[in-house]
Amino acid sequence: MIHLRSQTLARLVTSPLAIDSRSLPLLQKAFDTLGSNHDSTETPITTRISKSPATAESWSKLVASFAPLAARPASRKAAGHPALVLEGGIAAIPLTGVIVPGSNPGEFDGDTYLDDFLVSLHSLVDDAAVKSIVLIVDSPGGSVFGVQEAADALHAAGRRKVIHSVNVGLCASAAYWIACQAGTLIVQPSSESLSVGVFAVHSDLSERFRAAGITNTVLKAGDRKAAGHPLAPLDQIGREELQGSIDSYYDSFIRTVARGRKTSLTAVREIYKQGGVASATETVRIGAADRIGTLSELFQALLAKTANPHFSRAFLLRVIVAVGRLWRGGMVRMRNSPLTPIVGRAVRSSISG
Fold first, then answer.
1. CA of 299: how far to CAs of 83, 134, 160, 329, in Å?
2. pTM reported for the whole predicted model
3. Closest-CA residue to 270 (of 257, 289, 252)
4. Burial class of residue 78, CB neighbours in 10 A (0-12, 13-18, 19+)
5. Taking 70 as the threshold, does the pLDDT of residue 275 lie above it?
6. pLDDT digits (tens, 9 = 90+) for 11-57
7. 221-230 contacts: CB < 8 A, separation 24 or more?
8. Side-chain half-sphere of 305: how many Cα atoms within 13 Å?
């Protein structure tokens, strides 16, 4: 879902995009809504963008399920961007929805505002009790603005904490740009990844204004000022400016992916689907992710490494139940989910124990 406010949509209109191109028609619907509802600056504009349902409610349920286990400020953060801190040194943070620069003026609604994301990430990195961080990813990408800084921050965080990224649905473009900086990248069986590329769309609105009887005159100083503006067809100077910007961001994207995946620039350019998306199997086969797995399996593995005996049966059961709620909420999409038999065994074991 897109839950973007009109101010955020305006940022996307003026930005080169690192987003799964299948989202473009739906973003266009949101842009059209923005044009017809320019007074409602505080009302979220909602439109379906992918297989993902709204993530805010499911993430809130997960936070609420775990909050009693860790009385830490970050685990109770509702505004901005949530961060979940568990006992045992395990933390989780979402990278979901459309990725945009700046801060969310309201409550977390499933989309990722990078300023808020970085505040939450840094709070986890600076928390001495946190040993590992799980990035839960379900995003088509978004604007390029701020993405390189977020990717660099996650890469730097890996020098202080163990970082895992888990693609629970879609990890595309800007989302992959960031998530691939984790020490381990896990993709769920039904997920899609990559879309390593940047694009921009120039909209020529001159005919629309002409039909409305409006004539626009652009005055400027500087040969390249106002290049590519939407009140006229795209000229050669505008095309050069726009393509130059796209190429620059794409080069940064390629270099960052190569760093995160510890591979060559050539491999990223030629093997990583050249802007297309890949299934979980193909993503792992070409080296763009480490393995196929699930979020619940990762939580179990991390919990098994904790030395505290209080994390045994009861704690594991609460973890699985919370992840199950997240799954039922639609954020984690797994075919033939292993959660049901695992929960059943844990319940029977707890009762018999």
1. 16, 9, 20, 18
2. 0.78
3. 257
4. exposed
5. yes
6. 666 678 898 878 776 666 655 655 554 444 444 444 434 344 344 55
7. 228/202, 230/202, 230/203, 230/204, 230/205
8. 10
